[in-house]
Amino acid sequence: MISSVDKTCPLTFASVDPDAALKAVVGKKRSEVLAEVAASGLKGRGGAGFPTSVKWNLAAAARGQEKFVICNADEGEPGTFKDRVILSDYADLVCAGMTAAAYAIGATRGIIYLRGEYTYLRPHLEDVLARRRGRSLLGPKILGKDGFDFDIEIRMGAGAYVCGEETALIESLEGNRGEPRNRPPFPVDTGFMSRPTAVNNVETLAWAACILANGAEWFKKHGTEKSTGLKLFSVSGDVERPGVYEFPLGITIAELLRHVGGENAKAAQIGGASGHCVPASQFERTIAFEDVPTGGSVIVFGPDRDMLEVAENFLEFFVEESCGQCTPCREGSRKLLEGVKMLRKGTCSMKYLRELCGLGQTMQLASKCGLGQSAPNALLSIVEHFKDDILGRTPQAV
Amino acid sequence: MADKCAKCEETRAPKSQRAHEIVAPAAADAIGAQVSATIDGKEIKVPIGTTILKAANELGVHIPTLCYHADLCIAGVCRVCVVEVEGQRTLQAACAYPITQPIKVHTHTAKVRRARRHILDLLLSEHYGECYACGRNNNCELQALAKEYGVDYFRFGHPDKPRFETDTSSYSVRRDMNKCVLCRRCVRTCIDLQEVGVLEVARRGAESKVVTFEDKPLADVVCINCGQCINRCPTGALTEKDFTDEVWAAIDDPTKHVVIQTAPSPRAGIGECFGLEPGHALTFEMNTAMRRMGFDKVFDTNFTADLTIIEEGTELLLRLYKALVEKDKSVALPQFTSCSPGWVKFIEHFYPEMLPNMSSAKSPQQMFGAVIKTYYAKKNNIDPKDIVCVSLMPCAAKKFECNRPEMCDSGFKDIDYGLTTRELGKMIAETGIYLPDMPKSDFDDPFGTATGSGVIFGATGGVMEAALRSVIELVMGIKVEDLFDHADITPIRGFEGMRIAELKIDKVGPVPDILKHLVPNWDWLKGATLKAGVAHGTANAKRVLDDIKAGGKFSECHFIEFMACPGGCLGGGGQPIPTSPEIRAKRAQAIYNEDAAYEVRKSHENPAVIELYEKFLTDGPCGHLSHKLLHTHYTPRGKFIG
Ligand SMILES: Cc1cc2nc3c(=O)[nH]c(=O)nc-3n(C[C@H](O)[C@H](O)[C@H](O)COP(=O)(O)O)c2cc1C
Ligand code: SF4
Ligand code: SF4
Ligand code: SF4
Ligand code: SF4
Ligand code: FES
User: Fold this and answer.
1) Interval between CA B135 and ligand 3 midpoint (Å)
2) Does the beta carbon of B67 sit less than 6 angstroms from any atom of ligand 6?
3) I need a surface site. Which of A369, B73, B177, B466 has the fewest CB within 10 A?
4) What is the mean pLDDT of chain B?
């Protein structure tokens, strides 16, 4: 069960037959498919952890002549590379998951929004799609079922991290600047081309296929009550064995670090740039939606890391990647970065640091999308847990 | 749904440049369904989909805004309007949050107040500008918010030098991006409201900036100078190009004879510069004030508005005659009005192939300049080179128009300076005059007596109404009052973006003397139905032009009035700020009231106009001299400027 893809051990995905998923689906009513996913307790693997069945139910209930399923393969979170592995090795499972979603919500068109840097995967994915069309797993009357028409096309992302946010992704698909929309309305009501749209992460869709093939009970054997199932992790940083791993949700950070050879870490950034920085003193916490949530990125910091440098790197990322439409994120990220630079130089007063932390909270509350809402997370947790790293620097000449 | 943004729905702007729209969830469009909202403890029932902001307004609860504007699609970007919604982890933008289920909202909790304060501090931390030296001092939404939220120091710093060079390339709009707060109202104005699309946000994050195509100077892109973006900019980032110093210098120069003409719309708006409610016309108070300021003569642009009607109307009749009697297929119909310089530049850029439809008549502003520096100069024995012609206009594009190289038919620059309502307001204030208290006085001769028809040029449909009044009397030989009560041609009034009115010519009268040399009789018009169209705002203009190309109902019109600005000139880019549909409606009412008060309300009855044709333009409307002085030509520009 515990494996590293960059090594040779197989993932659970390898043991699941994607065709079994679709065969099971066409034998069921839509409501039964939705019920199976609901029973599994599957939550979104893209980061937000939204219950997949709720999303699908809303999209199924929404009115619209045409509906869409979008596979979010933008994988832009720093330190995340598990979707790449899934797409290159288990693309059929992802397609089966999309097709099942389409069946459940009544969609006829699917789109894989593929990260620009993954363009090299496109020919492979096109092959998979073509093969599936040939086998009646895509196209009109899938597996001979009347009224079950669905096909998938691939669209390329253009490199902005924010385009992984589902409404920005949709804007980008529509040919606009990739900027998050006002929500509500949500994509399940008013998504791509103003049609009801279910946007799901690559991994979510792959697990959905597994659940439909093997049953909800099979899936729930792992994980916690609120965070069911297994999850892929992209582990990087100061560890002996970086790579893609599969662990049950609810695993403690300490245990995860043992598996990857990162026992002496000083801190772990769980959830990428937008996640939280957990200090060694809290490594007994669990990775789960109810404790430390993640979209799968674990970045490990060894004992010699300068945590302020870590914060600076993350904030540089956000200053660069903010779409720039809303004030808290656009200007706030810039102020936080300036503040970290002042801290590194030893020129930031305690008073100003408090002011910046307050600003960080405002960004969390008032930004328009998840990017700005999470941009201050890393800094705030570093300030909270690594006071010694931050304070007491003497002013430097530079 | 109540707050579904109709403008977003209708707009044909490229999708990439639209603001994000609010669309109700499918579950919400049960028409008329009501939902309850509790805001700061007060309860209200509103139609599903109403925004929190709107509901709060109805309850009298004030929520501050910055990127929100009543004329524009919702952007939800400044986040100044955030409020706490019970059950939501994050704060929500009141302007963008549609109420679809019962909610409880708190508008001034500690979190909210702190967030607003932070947002203002952040905006100010990148805002370079000194209020004392800013065109929007005391009329600036950023400044007002800073006051409202008690900003007492720049907690995140304040820039001490500019980041961008000010763009002064345009005759009409000055852009100082150092004062820009990235609310994107100008972007939305230009693309959603006007469908011109000159402005867009470029780059990302902290590098974001409102730019033109390739960040070129505004004068080198397809900007039509309408100034609508100025009227909606909350700060001093966009202002008109100011010519008040030049005008003062002329006034102060004893060798110069400085005359000013005033268009109808400024008088309906200028009171707002002095704190009056919209809708108070101060025509005659303004005359006194301008004399006290030192203008030598104060004229009414309505005189040339009447002249425009005669020239443009004659041109139309000639086109119709050629088309109907001489069966000349080359005649371009419908004829388009040409008094709105924003509209003129719009068609030059975007529909150059339709320029033959444009009336060759100059705008009233330019006609006036040409008449002043010829007829008036001669009549009063003044050397035209010593005359400085100033015009008071509701318009930013008039500044560009008077600087068009072809506008020199008098042998001099016909109009030297175009001032906006706002600029004159400022100059009056500088003189220490409180305008509403001025005694009233009349316009100067020889153009003194204008008509009501000239006045209504300020409102959308006004040119058409004026033209129809004259056509009815000159062609049909009857009184307008016989057809329409009080000569108010109400079918052509209103604020709908595009309208058509029809006039059946069921009888004809004798050809009046003034037109005798052009047509033998009107018999060829008998039984015809004259179709007149009206469009205001270039977005509507675009629709009308496309409809004509597609052979739609506007292609059957004979004459179409186009105004670049929503609402017509009374909503012009030089009018007092703020603007909103309600404010424009009140200004329109002021204009129609003034029209009703005139004794002479038809252009062709204006005695000064009659005298001009008798004494000066002796070969009549569209005659040789009028062609030289009162008509012009256009420049096909296209969309790409080298
Ligand atoms: C700034 C930002 C970037 C995001 N990037 C991704 C991404 O690369 N891949 C992804 O699956 N979800 C990403 N998300 C989350 C998506 O908005 C969305 O929640 C997700 O695709 C839903 O799928 P799920 O429910 O299956 O997790 C991002 C969110 C934000 C705010
Ligand atoms: S939070 Fe940042 S990325 Fe999100 S909308 Fe605002 S500026 Fe854009
Ligand atoms: S834009 Fe407003 S805040 Fe800025 S300098 Fe001008 S008046 Fe002051
Ligand atoms: S003046 Fe008019 S056309 Fe020019 S940028 Fe402003 S809104 Fe656009
Ligand atoms: S120029 Fe004015 S209207 Fe345009 S974004 Fe800046 S502040 Fe807003
Ligand atoms: S006024 Fe609501 S976000 Fe700007």
Assistant:
1) 8
2) yes
3) B177
4) 92
Q: Which atom number of ligand 6 is nearest to the Cα of residue B65?
A: 1
**Is B78 a pocket residue for ligand 6 (Cβ < 6 Å)?**
yes
At the second CATH level, the architecture of B130-138+153-240 is 2-Layer Sandwich (3.30)
CATH topology of domain B244-303+365-437: Rossmann fold (3.40.50)
Domains of chain A from N-terminus onward: 13-220 (3.40.50.11540), 230-301 (3.10.20.600), 307-389 (1.20.1440.230)
Of A62, A318, A331, the CB nearest to B122: A331
- Contacts of residue A335, Cβ cutoff 8 Å, sequence gap at least 6: A356, A359, B122, B125, B156
Domain boundaries, chain B: 15-108, 130-138+153-240, 244-303+365-437, 311-362+450-641
Calpha distance B157→B147 (Å, rounded):
17
Report pLDDT for B489. 87
Q: Collect all residues of chain B within an 8 Å Cβ-Cβ radius of residue A194.
A: 23
Q: Give the CA count within 13 Å in the CB-facing half-sphere of B634.
A: 29
Whether pTM exceeds 0.90:
yes
The angle, 0 to 180 degrees and rounded to 10, between the axes of the packed helices B421-430 and B283-293 is: 60
Please report, rounded to a whole number, the percentage of residues in chain A having pLDDT higher than 90: 90
User: Do residue B90 and residue A328 have CB atoms under 8 angstroms apart?
Assistant: no
- Residue B24 makes CB contacts below 8 A (sequence gap 6+) with A185, B1, B3, B4, B48, B49, B98, B100
B312 catalytic, yes or no? yes
Q: Which among A175, A152, A142, A165 is positioned nearest to A77, based on CA atoms?
A: A165
Distance CA B410, CA B162 (A): 43
- CA-CA distances (angstroms) from residue A90 to A47, A114, A208, B277, B367? 20, 15, 13, 68, 75
DSSP letter at B289 equals H
Q: Nearest C-alpha of chain A: how many angstroms from B77?
A: 4
Annotated active-site residue B582? The verdict is no
Tally of CA atoms within 13 A in the half-sphere of B471 that contains its CB:
30
Q: Using the beta-carbon criterion (under 8 Å), do B25 and A62 form an inter-chain contact?
A: yes
What CATH fold (topology level) applies to the domain B15-108?
Ubiquitin-like (UB roll) (3.10.20)
- Active-site choice (B312, B423, B473, B594): B312
Task: Nearest by CB to A63, from B26, B75, B91: name it.
Answer: B26
What residue in A sits closest to B88 (Cα-Cα)?
A365
Kindly state the helix (H) or strand (E) to which residue A355 belongs, with its residue range: helix A350-366
Q: Among all residues of chain B, which has the CA nearest to that of A356?
A: B156
Class of domain B311-362+450-641: alpha beta
**Which residues of chain B are within 8 Å of residue A321 when distances are taken between CB atoms?**
204-205
Burial of B77: CB neighbours in 10 Å, binned 0-12, 13-18, 19+: buried
Query: Which residues on adjacent β-strands are paired with residue B45?
Result: B36
The answer to whether the CB of B184 is under 6 A from ligand 5 is yes
Chain A residues with CB inside 8 Å of B123's CB?
A: 327, 331
Instruction: Judge: B208–A184 Cβ closer than 8 Å, yes or no.
Output: no
Report pLDDT for A340.
96
B72, B63 Cβ separation under 8 angstroms: no
Residue type, B399: K
- C-alpha span between B47 and B35 (Å, rounded): 6
C-alpha B234 to ligand 3 mean position (Å): 9
d(C-alpha B221, C-alpha B224), whole Å: 9
pLDDT surpassing 80 at residue A202: yes
CB contact under 8 A, A190 and B25: yes
The helix/strand/coil state of B514 is helix
Burial B348-360 (b: 16+ CB within 10 A, else e): bbbbeebbebbbb
Task: Determine whether the shortest distance from the Cβ of B142 to ligand 5 is under 6 A.
Answer: no
Reported as a single tens digit per residue, the pLDDT across A140-184 is 999 999 999 999 999 999 889 999 999 999 999 999 999 999 999
Pick the atom of ligand 1 nearest to A166's CA: 17
